[in-house]
């Protein structure tokens, strides 16, 4: 699908960094450093909701809802707002109040186009799905924004009802949540500096990995902490990822990783495909 132009939102931390780095290195202040995404899927994975394991009724309701929005086209309409020519709709979070009938969702709102902040509201595919689900259930939506590592844990500790955060189905996460049926097919992509030509002749994931496997600790790769990108780089037996020998560096979100790549702190970044495209387009515009 052709990606629409992303409104520069949810990247305030990156914008702040770019203010200090815009001049670049001495002697090359006029050069604009940008990044590009290598258009090859490195993984195949599925996003799902993480539901409280003690809430089987809610799991059934979520699965029925996912089936409904797939069949009636509502999911496609929401995705079109971020990948096509639709208009994103901001989502407001209510204040947590245990006396009210609320649906409390844990997310990490630094993962465009699935969840990000827009002023004092939220936007993104997942956030619009969460709002539609809360409306369907007749509940008030409460969004709890936290680190990605905490979203499943918060549900497991009964602090939230659902984890909705571009969450890949993974065996060890089932310790904390019961996964819903999948609603989105995802993958990891490689991000490099725009002047990097190493991967220009690559056609398959094997071609890309053959190059990455030649790298040692003198090369650095970045990713968002707790995500499939981290597992892919470091190695993960449950996913069947062998990992690489490069120096691994984790970040709170993919935007910070891509900005560090542009600033020269990393050689490679591996993050989810849709966020990779949105982040690089947005940061490149700010250079």
Automatic annotation (TrEMBL):
Keyword Signal recorded: yes
Main location, first listed in the record: other
Signal peptide: 1-21
Family according to the record: Belongs to the bacterial solute-binding protein 3 family.
Cell compartments where the protein resides: Cell envelope
Name under which the protein is recorded: Solute-binding protein family 3/N-terminal domain-containing protein
Domain Solute-binding protein family 3/N-terminal: 102-287
Pfam family, one: SBP_bac_3
Keywords: Signal
InterPro entries the UniProt entry points to: SBP_3_CS (IPR018313), Solute-binding_3/MltF_N (IPR001638)
């Amino acid at each position: 699908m052709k990606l629409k132009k992303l409104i520069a939102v949810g990247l305030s931390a990156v914008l702040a960094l770019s203010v200090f780095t815009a001049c670049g290195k001495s002697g090359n202040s006029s050069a604009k450093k940008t990044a590009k995404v290598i258009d090859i899927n490195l993984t195949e994975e599925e996003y799902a909701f993480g539901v409280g394991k003690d809430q089987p009724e809610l799991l059934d309701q979520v699965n029925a809802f996912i089936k409904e929005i797939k069949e009636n086209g509502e999911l496609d309409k929401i995705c079109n707002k971020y990948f096509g020519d639709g208009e994103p709709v901001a989502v407001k979070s209510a204040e947590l109040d245990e006396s009210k009938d609320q649906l409390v969702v844990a997310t990490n709102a630094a993962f465009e186009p699935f969840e990000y902040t827009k002023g004092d509201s939220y936007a993104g595919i997942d956030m619009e799905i969460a709002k539609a689900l809360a409306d369907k259930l007749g509940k008030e939506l409460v969004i709890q924004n936290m680190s990605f590592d905490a979203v499943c844990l918060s549900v497991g500790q009964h602090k939230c009802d659902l984890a909705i955060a571009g969450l890949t189905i993974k065996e060890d996460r089932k310790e904390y949540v019961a996964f819903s049926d999948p609603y989105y097919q995802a993958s990891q992509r490689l991000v490099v500096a725009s002047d990097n030509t190493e991967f220009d002749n690559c056609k398959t994931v094997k071609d890309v990995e053959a190059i990455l496997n030649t790298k040692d600790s003198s090369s650095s790769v970045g990713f968002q902490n707790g995500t499939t990108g981290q597992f892919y780089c470091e190695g993960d037996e449950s996913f069947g990822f062998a990992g690489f020998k490069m120096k691994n560096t984790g970040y709170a979100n993919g935007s910070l990783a891509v900005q560090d790549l542009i600033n020269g702190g990393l050689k490679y970044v591996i993050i989810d495909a849709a966020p990779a495209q949105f982040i690089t387009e947005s940061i490149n515009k700010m250079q």
